[in-house]
Write a structure and sequence with these properties.
Layout lengths: L2 H4 L2 H14 L5 H26 L1 H92 L2 H12 L1 H27 L1
Helix pairs in contact: 2-3, 5-6
InterPro entries: DUF3618 (IPR022062)
Organism: Streptomyces regalis
Protein name: Circumsporozoite protein
Length: 189
């Protein structure tokens, strides 16, 4: 092989070996050493040339590098996606808490309004009850004073002793009901 065909690197090693060889070997041992050195340099040159001509090997090495880079990018993207997921989850949690706080506040406000409205209705009902009671008492006094004295005495006795009046009322009610039932029954025959 010539220096031109060697492509530079191998040719330079051959030139260096030739220069050493030009000085000549000082004996058989020196010659053997130079031969071994030249063989080593030639082997390195052949390996380098073989590496340059191994397109498939270089393509596989490049593919392996790209695969490693793609794997690293995948890991990085997954990590970024997980981090983005955590960020979104935190934001959603905060938004949920804000909504929950607002709902709680609105619930309390509605409860306060309902309580106030209930108290207002209760106050009005109490006032109306007192008004009705006062009017009934006034009407009772007016009726009581308008009744003849013997009837008034019976009414006052009934108010003082309500149990006998209730029993008498129940007896009278039962008698009236019995009479109504008797008339209906005899009217059907």
């Amino acid at each position: 092989m010539t220096d031109k065909a060697a492509g530079g690197t191998g040719g330079e090693a051959a030139k260096a070996g030739a220069a050493k060889g030009a000085g000549g070997a000082k004996g058989p041992e020196e010659l053997r050493r130079q031969i071994e050195q030249t063989r080593g340099e030639l082997g390195d040159t052949v390996a380098e040339l073989a590496g340059k001509t191994d397109v498939r090997g270089r393509a596989q090495a490049r593919a392996a590098d790209l695969k490693d880079k793609a794997g690293a990018m995948t890991v990085q993207l997954r990590s970024s996606a997980v981090q983005a997921g955590h960020v979104l989850q935190d934001r959603a949690t905060r938004a949920g808490h804000v909504v929950q706080d607002r709902a709680t506040h609105a619930g309390h406000a509605a409860q306060e309004r309902a309580t106030h409205a209930g108290h207002t209705v209760q106050d009005k009902a109490t006032h109306a009850g007192h008004t009705v009671h006062d009017k009934a008492t006034h009407a009772g006094h007016a009726v009581e004073h308008g009744l003849p004295r013997p009837v008034r005495t019976v009414v006052q006795t009934g108010l003082r002793h309500p149990r006998p009046v209730l029993i008498a009322g129940a007896v009278v009610g039962a008698a009236v009901a019995a009479e109504i039932l008797r008339r209906r029954h005899s009217g059907h025959h």
